[in-house]
C-alpha cells in the first residue's frame, strides 16, 4: 500500500498527541527542524509501539532538515479492523464475572507476596517471572450488575502491596488484564464516514436538527482524541438509554473505503463517486449513482483564499494552476507585492483536494508543487493562510473565516465571479461543487439512516444546510446583475423577470435530467404553490462546439425537456426559448466546462394570472 510522507507525518503527530504530548503545530513540525527536534528528542520511541513506517519517518524527521512531503512510500498493508463493531457473544453471567475478578485479585496478591516477601533473596524464587495473561478475542458484556467490573483502582485497594516495587509489578499485571469484563461497545444508530467538508460542521448540525425534530433529548457532540472523529450522543424519545452516531471525517475517499469494509452505513463526499469506486462497490450495494442512492445534500463553492494583506482580488484558473504548481513563485508576476508564494492544500484523502485537482490542476496539465503544506482540517488550513504572508490555499466556502476569498474566472477572457450564495446555487461560479451522501440500496427504508437522509433533503433539512454556512437547495428568486455584453434578445426576454436560484442540468451527452435536477423539479412545484401569481419562462443554452444553428436547436430541446417534466407535475410555462451558445458561464475548451454551459435557466415574473396551472403562452 502506498501513502505520502506528509500522511505519515500527520499520523506521527496524532500518535504523539494521543500519548500525552501537547498540541503540535503541524506546519512548524514539518518545516522547522529546531521545533521538530525539540519534540522528537523528548520521545521514547520504544514505549510508543510505532509501526515500522512511523519509526522510519521518525528517524527521517530527526536526521533531515527538509523532506519531500508529496513523495509516495510503500507501507505494509494493515489487517482491516472493524470500527465500532464487536463480535456477537453471549453476556457473561455475574458468577463468571465474580470468578474472574477473584482470580485476578489472587494472581496480583499472590505474585506480590511471592516476589517481594522476605524470601525474595532465595534465587529459586527470584527467577519467577510474572504470568502473562493473554487477551481474549471476545469482549462479553455484563448483564445488569456492574460491580463486578475490574478496575485498576479496585486492584490497588485489594492488593497487599508492600513497596514501590510491589506497586510497580501490580501496575504491570493490571496492564495485561484481559478486557472480557468491560462493557460491549455501544452499537451506533448509524455511522457516517468520509468528507471532512461535510463531517466537520454540516453533518453534526444536520444530525442534531433531525433528532430534535424526532423528539430526542440531551443531544451533544462528544469530541474524541482524533481531531476529525466525533460522536453525537442523544437519548431517543421514550428511551432512557444513551444512543450515538459516530462521524469520521478523514476525506471523501475514506467514506467509500469504509463502505467497502462494512465500517459505515453512509458515505459523505464532496465530489461524485469515481468510476473505479462505483465498480468496486456495485456488487455489494447496487448502483450508487442512481437517484435513490446518490443524494445531493447541498452546494459548496471551492473558495480560493489568500492572506488578507494580499492586494490581488481575482485570478483565472490558468493563473491558479501556475501558482499551485510552483510555476509562479512570486506575487509580483500577477501584479501583486514582491513576496514569495506559499502554497497550502488539503490532504490527499480530501474531496476538496480531488475537486481542486480536477477543476484546476488537471485542467491545465500540472501537478501540485512538492513543498505545498498539506493539512487535513479545513479550519486549520484557513487559519494558517490567514496568518501566513504570501499564502494561498483552497477551501470550502464556509471555512473562509479570516482569510480573503478571490473572484475566479474560468479562462483568461472570462468574467471573474465571486463565490456567493446565488452564483453557487446556480452553479455559475467556476469552482462550484455538489455535496453528496451515498446511501447503499441495501439500507432499509425504516432505518434511522434512511430517515435521516429524508430529513436532509427536506425543506427543513436544507434550511439547516444554509444555517451551517453552506448553500441550501431551497429555491428563491432574485434579480441578478446583467452585463450589456449579453445577447440583446436574451436581455429583452428577461427585462421584467426574476431568476430562480437553480439551473437544470443533464446527464452527460443526453436530454435526461440529472439526479439534482430530478429533485429540483419538486422544489419548483413547491415554489409555485407558495408563490401564486408567478409566470415561468425557461431559457436553454448549449456549448459552442459545432454549428451555431444546431446548438440553438439543442438548447431549445433541453428547455423543452424541462417544460415536459414540469407539465407532468401541473406547472405550465409561459415562454420557452433556446439561446444556443450565447452567454457561456464556463470554458468551452474542457468537457466539464461544456457540460456546465448546457443548462436551462428558469425565470419568473408577476402576473395577475397565477403561474401555477396557468395556460401555456
Automatic annotation (TrEMBL):
Entry keyword set: Membrane, Signal, Transmembrane, Transmembrane helix
Phylogenetic lineage: Bacteria, Pseudomonadati, Pseudomonadota, Gammaproteobacteria, Oceanospirillales
Residue ranges occupied by any OmpA-like domain in the UniProt entry: 493-608
Residues passing through the membrane, by range: 97-116
PANTHER family according to UniProt: PERIPLASMIC PHOSPHATE BINDING COMPONENT OF PHOSPHATE ABC TRANSPORTER, PHOSPHATE-BINDING PROTEIN PSTS
One GO term describing the cellular component: membrane
Protein name (database record): OmpA family protein
Domain of life: Bacteria
Native source organism of the sequence: Neptuniibacter caesariensis
